[in-house]
Amino acid sequence: MKYYQYLIRRFTGMIASLAGLSVIIFAVSRILPGNPARMALGPTASEAQVEEFASELGLDEPLPVQYVDYLQGLLVGDLGMSLQTRSPVANDILWYLPATLELISLAMAFTIVFGIFLGVVAASDKDGVVDNATRLVSFVGVSVPGFFIGIVFQVVFGYLLQWFPITGRLSRGFEEEVTRQTGFMLVDTLLGGHWAAHVDAWMHLLLPALALSMAGIGQIMRITRSSMIDVQRKDYIEAERGLGLPNWLVVYKYTLKNAFIPTLTILGLLYASLLGNAFLIELVFNFPGIASYGVQAVLANDFNAIVGVTMTIGLAFVLANLVIDLLLGRVDPRIRLAMEEST
Amino acid sequence: MFEDAETRRRFLQGIGAAGVAGLAGCSAEDPEASGGGSPAGDGDGDETSGDEGGSDDRRTLAMNAVQRFGTIDPARGTDYTQVMAMVNLYDPLVFPNEAGEIQPHVAEDWSVSDDNRTYTFTLRDDIQFHSGNQLTAADVKYSLERLLDINEGYASQFSIVDVDNVAVTGEYEIEIPLTEVYAPFMDVLVLLFIVDSQLVQENAADGEFGDDGDYGVEFLNNADAGSGPYSLNAFERGSSISFDIFREYWAEIPENAYERVYVDIITTDSTVRTLMRNEELHMTSQYQSEQTYQTLAEEDHIRVNSTPTATLLYFKLNTQRAPTDDVEVRKAIAHAFDYETARTEVAPGSGEAVGPVAPVFDSHNGDVPQPGYDPERAREILENAGYGEGDVQIEHTFVRETDLQEQLALLYQQNLNEVGIEVELNPQTWGTMTDMATDPAQTSHSNNVFYGPVYPSVDAYLVNQYYSESASTWMSMSHLQDSELDGIIEESRRTTDPDARADLYRDAQQRIAEQYPEVFVFVDTKKHAMNEEVQGYTYRPSMSFDYWFRDLTQE
């Protein structure tokens, strides 16, 4: 199979996955208990009002007809109207997504930097003090829920030490001077030349990003450590050491690069799963991202918003998988060659 | 490192200043920049802040809410955060006081025609909208037409208005005719928020309402066109909204009123506790956990304010399904429940309920039969009605994953078991409960429901919960069908004399209580943890009218 054929197959699979997801989430959102029209109009709405509104939303049509209408809208970027915000869901998602992307990107950066570094250090000191200490950190990171870590961070760094703000994206007073251009606060503050606000945005991001990244750091740390130990046992590493190459060169160029494949695979999935894990972190830190938007949508039975958020997260997952597959071929030519030779 | 948020902000300003000095010339600050706006905003950043970023030393109040402000359009909003915004941004014709009595507001005077079907209002002539436009009778007419044409929000409360014949009879005078006599009309009028018709028309997009386009629906979803004591400062729908005091407000603003009010959407109790301790929040929402109130009350600078409300908790008994269709069974259930334990142990601070209406209203009838906890009497009632041990089995539905409701349900189950009634607990989502309510056959025998009036009148309790034609909503899960009661309610709606109407309200309460359609569990108490400096909180028996920020002062 040629590489481009492989790409086409992967791309087709991606579309099929999203189509399947759309059917499932559409059906689930429509059979959720409670009349969305009544919940949107509030307790004082009359039956006539509810029926009229339900008709406007197309809720009186059979489910398959509603689904076809939905798909037609989806193809032109129309995800319907949010019953709660009364804005197009696509606009809402574009509004809230940058905050979450900023959060999970920083969380990902922490995961990569701390996870890989600590994994390498632990492998270099197998069964030593550092290895055992990082094992403990990993254990805590993986087993304690992120939102709980977030609350602990808030109490320690927000209340006791008062080093960091604990809610929102910017402090009061700064919020009004920053013009929204990209939706990414770190970028918008720079574009506007608001340096103090830029630093403030970092201060707001650090705690939730660190809390969100703890589980990933633990996972990446352990996977990197195991892979590193495996590769360290290879003959060519022994040979490199025998040739007198410096330790840093052996570790970071020859060992880590070859030990990186499993780590990279997990990193890709982690990035997408952070979108899902951000739900509780965003609630705890009052961070106005797509995850907290999704939670409010579920609570309000806002079916278009529920479908929109789920499809966005689903898209992130399939795109992450695709990117990882492409990267694996780049990082390790053996994978690409093996694929081409198999035909 | 930083003693408080202000110190941290100064530190950041220092860094910012250094950054600006070091990078002078790299970028120019936009003096018109603003962080306001919203998903549907035009995004051109033309809202202005008017103050120096990061140096917010004005008198500010920060409170939290537990749900976002879905819309701030006065023709669409109905829930507690939405009305909180509407009541501060807009003015209605009349306003409720602490007892729920209607007071002049935008309308300084009014008269009613001899046939009690036409109301003529004389408006104040000194009211400016935030835009600077003058509020006139034409704005009132436009607001009413807009509400009824959009047909969302509180529109159903105004279906009685003969909208085609509403007449502007002077710049500051308007006649509003009704299709029939409707005595609670003045009470309902607190829900008619007046919009700046000129501003809305200027910002209306194309839409389904002919010459009126979209009636400014897109515009008012994110902007303010009111004359209220506060104007919109910034609105980030998912996380916060802030208001600035409107200095040109027609009524007196207290000297120590808050110049800016932030309402942040924070749902996590631990976060609320930390922010209150740090004094970054000055007032909590009414929906924090009991543990949060107790913990915060221990702080020196915080007090917890408890206020009895107009909201009651009811166990609504389905009068259309056996065995709760038998009034004797309902009566026995009402005698079997331990009200005092519910009030003191499960929901501490809540008040004693007597009948279906909260005592805050003058026309509350305190003489209706209100059973107490009397298991012997409950057993006796069942025996006399021919029920033996285990003959009565009921299902009780409550909203799942709410500690309070679960604890109450367990207490209820235990109490009823003691008198030989088996109770199967059925926790459900709120959505499911509203669905179940639409059909008496699907409604459980017993249902845990909080209800408080959205306009300051006993009429709201009676019509929504007990009037036969209102049946099949979550408010009327007892599905009471009583033509005599219907007659009293209809007569009360036709009776414009306040004293005579109050007597009819009392008669209705008596009639309801005699039929035991519900267990009147307790009068709900609203709690807020407040910084000691926050004063002036005033409860009014109409949803969210107690969040009229003009009442609050910093002492």
Shape of chain B: globular
Question: Average pLDDT of chain A, to the nearest integer?
Answer: 85
Distance between the termini of chain A: 5 Å
Radius of gyration of chain B: 26 Å
Give the strand order, joined by hyphens, for the main sheet of chain B.
13-12-14-11-15
Largest sheet features of chain A: none
Structural class of chain A: mainly alpha
Q: Assess the beta-strand content of chain A as a share of residues.
A: under 5%
Q: Most extensive chain contact? A: A-B, 76 and 94 residues
Residue-averaged pLDDT of chain B, rounded?
A: 88
Number of extended strands of chain A: 0
Quaternary assembly: heterodimer
What does it look like?
The complex is a heterodimer of chains A (343) and B (555). With 343 residues, chain A is mainly α. Chain A has 14 helices and no strands. The longest helix of chain A has 38 residues, at 195-232. The termini of chain A are close together. The model of chain A has no long low-confidence stretch (mean pLDDT 85). Chain B has 555 residues and is an alpha+beta fold. Chain B has 16 helices and 17 strands. In chain B, helix 9 (327-336) runs antiparallel to helix 11. The longest helix of chain B has 18 residues, at 5-22. The two termini of chain B are 29 Å apart. Classes of the chains: A mainly alpha (343), B alpha+beta (555). Chains A and B meet through helix 2, helix 3, helix 5, helix 7 and helix 9 of A and helix 1, strand 8, strand 10, helix 7 and helix 13 of B.
Summarize the structure.
Chain A is an all-alpha fold and 343 residues long. Chain A is built from 14 helices and no strands.
Helix/strand layout:
The complex is a heterodimer of chains A (343) and B (555).
Chain A: H1 3-31, H2 36-41, H3 47-56, H4 63-75, H5 89-124, H6 129-143, H7 146-160, H8 185-191, H9 195-232, H10 235-242, H11 247-284, H12 290-299, H13 303-331, H14 333-341
Helix pairs in contact in A: 1-13, 5-6, 5-9, 5-11, 6-9, 7-9, 7-11, 8-9, 9-11, 11-12, 11-13, 12-13, 13-14
Chain B: H1 5-22, E1 60-65, H2 80-89, E2 94-96, E3 102-104, E4 107-112, E5 118-123, H3 137-150, E6 167-170, E7 173-177, H4 185-188, H5 197-202, H6 217-220, E8 230-236, E9 240-245, E10 260-265, H7 269-277, H8 290-297, E11 302-317, H9 327-336, H10 339-346, H11 375-384, E12 392-399, H12 403-418, E13 421-428, H13 430-436, E14 446-451, H14 458-466, H15 483-494, H16 498-515, E15 518-531, E16 534-535, E17 553-554
Parallel strand pairs in B: 1-10, 12-13, 12-14
Antiparallel strand pairs in B: 2-3, 4-5, 5-7, 6-7, 8-9, 9-10, 11-14, 11-15, 16-17
Helix pairs in contact in B: 9-11, 14-15, 14-16, 15-16
